[in-house]
Amino acid sequence: MHKLSFRRNSLFVPFVLRQRFAAQFEYGFLKINNLLCAGEFLMIDKKTILKELEKVMDPELNVPITEMELVDKIEIKDGEVIIDFHLTAPYCPPMLALKMAYDIKEVVSHIPGVTHVKLNMSGHYLAEELNKEVNK
User: Fold this and answer.
1) Residues 57 and 103 in one domain
2) Where do the H-state alpha helices sit in the chain?
3) Range of the domain at 100
């Protein structure tokens, strides 16, 4: 597989490439048919992760989890993202807790450069079991 490297403002995008593929910029990288062209390494930062987490809503209140400050900690290591978060109540229904956890995992896993997402839920009476389920 060939690695391509383009700059955001670069006009060096071959005509054939522009014609064949719908090239678009996403997160500052050129994306061509789900292949990112940005050199050897992709930078993932907390700001990008928090921006994506704004899409995750609390299932009961329909408010973004970032606005409710439910995200406690974000760690990034070699493409792996570890997110510690808590719920609004320790006896939140397990199905709603799982929905929120799966939503978090879904939006973060679609960020370019993220290879694995691990979640650590805390403050719930079934936190240990729910963490095992969501991190399978």
Assistant:
1) yes
2) 15-20, 46-53, 94-109, 127-134
3) 46-134
